[in-house]
Each structure stands twice: as C-alpha cells, then as structure tokens.
Amino acid sequence: MFLFQLWREYKLSIAEILNVFPDGNIVFFDQKNLILDHIDEKTILERSPYLGGSIKISEVSKYRNYDEIYDYIAERASEKWWKFQYGLSVFGVRSDLKKQLTTIKKYLKEKSISSRFVNQDFSNVSSATIIGEKLVQKWSDFTLISSRDWWDIWLGKTIWVQDIEGYSKRDYGKSRDMQIGMLPPKLSQMMINIAWGEHIYDPFCGLGSLLIEAQNMWKQSIYGSDFNPEMVQLTAKNTGSHNIFLFDARDMAENNIFEKQTIDSIVTEGFLGEIMTKKNISHERISIQKKNLSKLYTKFFSWLQSIWFDGVMVISFPFWELEKKYVYFNEIYDILEKYCKIQDIFPKNSELRASKLWSLLYKRDTQLVGREIFKLKIKN
User: Fold this and answer.
1) Within the chain, what is the greatest distance between any pair of CA atoms?
2) Using one digit for the tens of pLDDT, what is the confidence trace for 268-317?
3) What does the DSSP 8-state code read for residue 125?
4) Which CATH architecture fits 173-378?
5) In terms of CATH architecture, what is 2-162?
C-alpha cells in the first residue's frame, strides 16, 4: 500500500492521483492523506515527479498497536552505524506528535540506539527539511496515521517528496506580465493529469504555464494560441516552442490547427475576464464580464462541436468573491449543457464525488477570482 500526502486542495489532489493510477484501490482517505493499494513502487516512482497535488509518497503498512510501530522504527535505526536521524509526521484522531517523538526517542535509547529527530518545534516535517536532511535516501522519514477506527494505524516510510525548489524555479524563471493572473504550476500539472492526453492544445495560453508543465511532463506535443500578441511572444519564449500562434478564440471557425495536427486534449485556463480589485469589484462589473465571456464561450464550444472534436477537455472558468460570498458564472452552465457532456472528474469506481455539476473549485484566500474546473467532452 502507498500513502499520498495531499495538497491543500485535497479533492483536486485525489482526482489527479486516481487518474494517474487508475488501477489503484482506495483503502483510506481524508483531507490530508490518501492510501491506495493495487499499485507498485516502480510505477509510482516513474510518475510521481509529474504529480502536482502530492506533497510526498510513502510505502505504508497497517499495524495492530504502537509497539509494533516502534519495533519497526528501531529495526530501521539498528541498521545504521551512525546516529539515527529521522523525521515523523502524524495525522488522525490521536495525532500527538510531541508524545510520539519523545516515546520513540526513549524506546530507541532503551535499545542503545543513539537518535535525533529533525522535527522543529514538534511540528510535522516539512518538505524542505526532508530534502535538506536527505531523509528519503536514508529511509528515515515516517508518517503515522490513526483513523477514526481505533484499530486502524498505519506507518509509512517516505519514498518520494515533491521538488518544491523546481516549482519555484519554473514559476519565477518565466517571463511574466504582473497585470494578469498566472496559473500555478501545481494546478497546471493536475489539470493535465486529469485530462491524461499526449497531444495538448491550450487556446488561451497566456504566459504558457500549462504548456511549460506539459513539456516537463514529456507530453508528445504541445500547441498554444492567444488573442494577445504579447502573450504569444512570452509563451513562445517561456516554452521555446514554435507551435505557439496568434488567434482569437472568438473566431475559432478560422482555426485549422485540428486539420494539421493531432490533438487529443484541450487543457486550458479559460479567459477569466478583466482584472478586478477590492476597490472596483461590483455586481455590475461581474455581470458585464459574464455577458462578454458567455459570447466568447458560445462561439468557442459551437466551433468545437462543428468540427466534431472528440478529445477530452479540462478547462477552468471564473467565479468571484464579493461581500464574502461566491458569485458563480451560472451562464456557463447553460452553455455547457447545450454543447458538452460534463464528465466526472473522479473515476467511476471512486467513492468520491465532485460538486453537483461535477466540477471542482480552486481559489486562494487572497484572490477575488477563483477557478471552477470541468472535465468535458463535446456533444456530437
């Protein structure tokens, strides 16, 4: 069995994992962790670098009591001839980390094993610490989970941790326009993985965040377009690709890319509308944005239907926060009903479900505009 520690948007994280590992069977999940069986370590290590929503992955076993867990850690520690350095993270109904750390240290001392835990301020171990202390290579980072059922206790040994520095380099290394929103690299990866295609087209490419991640995930081909010449130039620069071109999604009937190229997936952050601030956001401005965006998406989806596009589409639409309430883009639901078949983001064998509309939401606390993510097929 394998334990996935989830990103803060846990439903998106789980949806991504289940799409990347379709044979996996859910053993346990909550808002922090997911345990799967029926997958192997080789497959996990091959695909894990391209997971946006998994903080770390551990090989996990179920135990009857804590003494068995302490014995396992002591066995790992006794294999080291130097001082045993380890990290421990705990989750669940009995998640007293300080008590567990002191108990394990005392247990090891009684067995004449010198040890040091790397947890700072008796908090769960961060990815930065795991990487800095090389705990994966030492096989000495552990995760302890106690479920709602008293007898369910799991201990995981970390086999992979997310490359947080790599995300920062890709995000801050790209040419950017600070006046437009940028799709986070992790969310880009998750949307690509939910689509699970090899030939990706982004018709609202912006700065190219999605296409950069598709490149890093070794997708066979990427294509992008945007109505803004500056965005096209920046995306071409950020990706180094010649397959980026100027095009307005409102005139997609003139776009012959599907005649020239093989495209099995459209993955995109749809146009979110004008930039809004706390000073100028209002119901009136949001209504104007909805009308303009409705015209754009009606043309866009009607064109996809006219060319019989049969690939998968993962796309985000805006919603707004005003007066501490969410204002949804209700008009898009009617457009989708007319032109699209909304797909369940979670696999059919999953116990999980998205919203009533089969979408998932993403929004940072400081943002006024969030993203509602759909997985679609065009009605033909």
Assistant:
1) 76
2) 999 888 888 889 999 999 999 999 999 999 999 999 999 899 999 999 99
3) P
4) 3-Layer(aba) Sandwich (3.40)
5) 2-Layer Sandwich (3.30)
Instruction: Give the start-to-end residue ranges of the domains of the chain.
Output: 2-162, 173-378
Judged by DSSP in three states, 18 sits in: helix
Contact indicator for 234, 244 with CB cutoff of 8 Å: no
Instruction: Give the residue ranges of DSSP H helices in the chain.
Output: 10-20, 41-47, 66-78, 97-110, 127-132, 135-138, 164-172, 185-195, 209-216, 229-239, 257-260, 283-306, 330-339
Structure tokens at 273: 């509308």
DSSP string, 64-89: SSHHHHHHHHHHHHHT-SS-EEEEEE
Structure tokens at 219: 């997708």
Q: How would residue 152 be classed by pLDDT, with cut points 50, 70 and 90?
A: confident
Closest CA to 157 of 244, 102, 86, 100: 86
